[in-house]
């Protein structure tokens, strides 16, 4: 049974307080998804504030160049998220996926989202806004990742512990890259991720 709003708020409190991360078995993957939605909503509000008030400190040509670079980061983030979903496809709590992007970082979806967040920040025409957006996103995901890891250890056991020892938590290590032998794709999850990616494009001023 999925927890109600009160339980999810308590879960978010546990998420933000490190000492409370000792009982992952109380939550389901649906609870984690609800927590992620709350975190992403807070990040969206923070990014909107950066775009609105992180006024440009550069000349017009530099602002334009920064915004173009930001568009490239947003596109890279969308591609990275799609690449990750193609490999994980809803199997995160069922097996240890450790090929493709998951062979170089344990959290390629969050890495891709962080890259896209920096690109969104860059649309303010401010290097500071771009850096703050990426940093804020990365820090927020560290809380979520830490909580998820405890849950996945409980679900997947030693196989996940071994994966944790071999593959970095966040920053990718390309030298570890491995291709999968076969690849099964869930089109529903892929469409949802593509839709979410398209929404990121709304941050680009036209």
Task: Give the arrangement of secondary structure elements.
Elements: H1 5-16, H2 29-53, H3 60-88, H4 108-122, H5 127-156, H6 158-166, H7 187-200
Helix pairs in contact: 1-2, 2-5, 3-4, 3-7, 4-5
List keywords for this structure.
7 helices; 65% helix; globular; 206 residues
What can you tell me about this protein's structure?
With 206 residues, this protein is mainly alpha-helical. Helix 1 packs across helix 2, helix 3 packs antiparallel against helix 7 and helix 4 runs antiparallel to helix 5. The longest helix has 30 residues.
Order of helices and strands: HHHHHHH
Low-confidence sequence ranges: 1-26
Derived from helix and strand composition plus strand pairing, the structural class reads: mainly alpha
Number of strands: 0
Overall mean pLDDT stands at 76
Q: How many strands, which pairing sense, and closed or not: the largest β-sheet?
A: none
Which percent range fits the helix content?
55-70%
How many distinct helices? 7
Portion in strands? under 5%
- Which word captures the global form? globular
Gyration radius over CA: 18 Å
Gap between N and C termini, in Å? 45 Å
């Amino acid at each position: 049974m999925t927890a109600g709003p009160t339980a999810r708020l308590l879960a978010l409190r546990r998420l933000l307080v490190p000492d409370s991360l000792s009982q992952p078995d109380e939550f389901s993957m649906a609870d984690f998804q609800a927590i992620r939605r709350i975190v992403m909503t807070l990040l969206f509000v923070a990014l909107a504030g950066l775009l609105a008030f992180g006024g440009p400190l550069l000349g017009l040509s530099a602002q334009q160049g920064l915004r173009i670079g930001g568009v490239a980061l947003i596109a890279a983030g969308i591609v990275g998220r799609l690449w990750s979903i193609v490999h994980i496809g809803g199997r995160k709590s069922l097996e240890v996926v450790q090929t493709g992007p998951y062979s170089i970082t344990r959290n390629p979806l969050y890495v891709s989202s962080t890259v896209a967040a920096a690109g969104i920040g860059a649309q303010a025409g401010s290097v500071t806004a771009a850096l703050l957006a990426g940093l804020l996103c990365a820090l927020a995901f560290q809380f979520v990742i830490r909580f998820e890891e405890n849950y996945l250890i409980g679900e997947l056991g030693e196989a996940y512990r071994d994966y944790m020892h071999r593959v970095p938590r966040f920053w990718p290590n390309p030298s570890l890259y491995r291709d999968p032998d076969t690849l099964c794709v869930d089109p529903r999850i892929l469409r949802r991720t593509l839709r979410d990616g398209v929404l990121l494009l709304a941050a680009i001023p036209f």
